[in-house]
């Protein structure tokens, strides 16, 4: 995919190593790397604070001094700065390195992030330095479309983990046979989460997520998350 589309960076699906029948496709922000915590720390530098009043950023980020909400354009600027400085600001979610090292003995792992592809190199260095060398695709495309391409190569169980229910639903619609796992490292937004797709497995940390993913890989998860 590198060089083939301006909106996507990373290896082509056809070039990904396929060592196992099973595949784990993992979102990065809030699944593999902390996002909300460093985002809040950066907001403080702008004199603003995130209020967990609903499941969104727009309207919930307000000036500490005036109480006025930051605009979407201003929030985009903060997010871009976080991605530009992610090697200094974002840390791995607790337990992810050890869990993936164990799971990689039974399944292939691919990171799939909606982060602006322009910051691919920064994220690749960050993941490698954290001991997370698994292939990564950064794309502005639908995650469902990318997972559908991956599903053409892997014939065993496939799991997709993400923190955002709309992304899980998008994958469900594109690839109904894929098992879905919800994981959000920061707990503050969880009370406001929209409805999950049917039979999505929910994990509060990597201890729970590892168990759920292992059951999927071994075929012990029961009916997949999309069976009506």
Q: What descriptors fit this protein?
A:
8 helices, 33% helix, alpha/beta, Rossmann fold, 228 residues, seven-stranded mixed β-sheet, 2 domains
Structure overview:
It is a single chain. The chain contains 8 helices and 9 strands. Helix content is 33%, strand content 15%. The mean pLDDT is 93. The chain folds into 2 domains: 8-34 and 92-217, Rossmann fold (3-Layer(aba) Sandwich), CATH 3.40.50.1000; 36-89, no CATH class. It is of the alpha/beta class.
Helix-strand topology string: EEHEEHHHEHEHEHEEH
User: In percent terms, what proportion of residues is strand?
Assistant: 15-25%
* Spatial strand sequence of the major β-sheet: 1-6-5-2-7-8-9
Rounded to an integer in angstroms, the radius of gyration calculated over CA atoms is 17 Å
Just name the CATH architecture of the largest domain: 3-Layer(aba) Sandwich
Low-confidence stretches: none
Structural class: alpha/beta
Counted by DSSP, the helix tally is 8
Provide the domain count: 2
Mean pLDDT: 93
Classified in CATH, the superfamily of the largest domain is HAD superfamily/HAD-like
Largest sheet descriptor = 7 strands, mixed
Distance between the termini: 34 Å
Kindly identify the CATH topology of the largest domain. Rossmann fold
- Strand element count: 9
CATH class of the largest domain: Alpha Beta
Helix content: 25-40%
Structural shape:
globular
What can be said about this structure in brief?
The chain is α/β, with parallel strands linked by helices and 228 residues long. The chain is 33% helix and 15% strand.
């Amino acid at each position: 995919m590198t060089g083939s589309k301006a909106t996507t960076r990373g290896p082509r699906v056809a070039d990904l190593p396929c060592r196992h029948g099973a595949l784990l496709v993992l979102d990065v922000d809030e699944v593999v790397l902390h996002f909300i915590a460093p985002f809040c720390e950066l907001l403080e530098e702008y004199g603003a604070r995130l209020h967990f009043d609903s499941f969104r950023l727009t309207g919930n980020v307000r000036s500490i001094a005036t109480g006025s909400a930051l605009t979407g354009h201003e929030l985009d600027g903060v997010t871009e700065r976080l991605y530009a400085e992610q090697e200094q600001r974002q840390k791995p979610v607790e337990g992810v390195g050890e869990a993936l090292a164990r799971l990689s003995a039974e399944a292939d792992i691919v990171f799939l992030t909606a982060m602006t592809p322009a910051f691919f190199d920064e994220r690749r260095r960050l993941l490698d330095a954290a001991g997370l060398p698994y292939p990564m695709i950064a794309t502005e495309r639908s995650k469902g479309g990318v997972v559908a391409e991956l599903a053409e190569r892997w014939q065993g169980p496939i799991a997709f983990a993400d923190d955002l229910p709309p992304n899980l639903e998008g994958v469900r619609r594109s690839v109904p046979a894929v098992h879905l796992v919800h994981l959000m490292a920061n707990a503050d937004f969880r009370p406001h989460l929209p409805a999950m797709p049917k039979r999505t497995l929910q994990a509060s940390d990597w201890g729970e997520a590892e168990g759920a993913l292992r059951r999927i890989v071994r075929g012990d998860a029961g009916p997949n998350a999309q069976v009506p």
